[in-house]
Structures are given as structure tokens and as C-alpha cells.
Design a protein that fits this description.
It is built from eight helices and five strands, in the order ααβββαβαβαααα. The chain is an alpha/beta fold and 202 residues long.
């Protein structure tokens, strides 16, 4: 039903469930080819890594499954491209290591990757560092901001977020560090946990 609604919204045509099933069967081969495509032709300088949970129907049962996702930023034009989406427990270091090995087998230049951007998922950073010896890691700003803001009272979140944005979106490193000093002096006494989240990964 979801596929049928999406197709109708985008293409203006209605299809019954049998037609949708035939379409899915026909495109699954293309999807498998895309998931295994060769990556040798392009260098990727940054990788965004994350896990997410989605509801998936398997036969008559709907269950929540975890997916691992890698998005690469191309060196030549800086456009983003999904490199891999795999089912798996995002907390397991071995699964991330296996995913990185799969990318290498598909031709990803592991030495060209300069930076891995990720949240604090258990085992992810160490698996990444083992697979990409020339790359550094950076905590994802979205996750850092979310983790900090949940430690701030609702009525003061907008003010804290505005000061935090002065750190994240500063034009220079010097200005970012100066903005962080201001954030610390204003908020650390009241919300030490929120400031600590940012301080650990500054």
C-alpha cells in the first residue's frame, strides 16, 4: 500500500497489489546490482556513518530492523552519494568492520578518505580507524547538538541552541573556540552535562 501511494503521488497512476509485487520483483535485481556496484572510478574524501531503525514487513509480520548507512562525499565535485545500506545491529563493531571490508572489496580507495563523521555508536569509531588508517574522525554536529539540548530545560533550549550555533557555524577555528568560551561561561554552571557533551568532542 505504501508503494502504491508513493507511485500514485509521483506518477499519477494507480496499481493494484499484484502489479506492485511484479514491479518490486523486477527492480530487486537492479537494487542488488546497485548495492554491489564498483566504487573504483570515484574518490571519496569524507564518509558520514550512521545507523537507523525502520519498520520492515517480512511476510505478514512488521518488525523494527536496524540499518547501517554510509554516505560518501566525492572529492571532485563534493556531491554526496549513498555508498552502502545494510541490515545489521548498529551497535556491533564487527558488523561495521564487515561493511568497511565490503566497501574495500568494491573498490573504495580507503587511503583517500580523510574524515569519518559519526555519532558515538559503540565500536564504530575504532572499527573506522582500523579500516581507514589515514582518516580522522569527527563527532556529528547533529548528534552532538541533540545530545546537548536534551540536557537543557525546554524553556532555555532556544537560547542554548543559538549560542551553540555560534560555535558550530563560526567562520574560523579561532572564532569557534572564542564562542565556546562564551558558551562555557554562560551555561556550564547551570547545565554542566550539556556543555560537557560539546567539550568532549570540541
Amino acid at each position: 500500500r505504501d508503494v502504491s501511494r508513493t507511485v500514485e503521488r509521483h506518477f499519477g497512476s494507480k496499481f493494484d497489489s499484484k502489479e506492485i509485487s511484479r514491479m518490486v520483483a523486477a527492480t530487486s535485481g537492479e537494487l542488488d546490482a546497485w548495492r554491489q556496484r564498483d566504487l573504483r572510478a570515484t574518490e571519496y574524501k569524507f564518509l558520514y556513518l550512521d545507523g537507523a531503525n525502520f519498520s520492515v514487513r517480512r511476510g505478514t509480520i512488521v518488525e523494527r530492523l536496524a540499518f547501517l548507512c554510509v554516505v560518501g562525499v566525492r572529492r571532485d565535485d563534493e556531491k554526496m552519494e549513498v555508498l552502502s545500506i545494510e541490515v545489521g545491529d548498529r551497535e556491533q563493531k564487527a558488523l561495521w568492520a564487515e561493511l568497511f571490508q565490503s566497501l574495500e572489496r568494491r573498490g573504495l580507495d580507503m587511503n583517500a578518505v580523510e574524515l569519518g563523521i559519526m555519532d558515538g555508536l559503540a565500536g564504530l569509531e575504532s572499527a573506522f580507524c582500523a579500516a581507514f588508517p589515514n582518516a580522522r574522525t569527527q563527532r556529528c554536529q547533529v548528534h552532538a547538538k541533540r545530545n546537548a539540548l536534551k540536557r537543557v530545560s525546554v524553556r532555555e533550549r532556544d537560547a542554548f541552541k543559538a549560542d551553540l550555533d555560534c560555535v558550530f557555524y563560526a567562520k574560523t577555528e579561532a572564532r569557534a573556540r572564542s564562542a565556546f568560551v562564551e558558551l562555557v561561561s554562560k551555561w556550564k554552571t547551570k547545565y554542566p552535562g550539556a556543555v560537557g557533551v560539546i567539550e568532549r568532542d570540541l
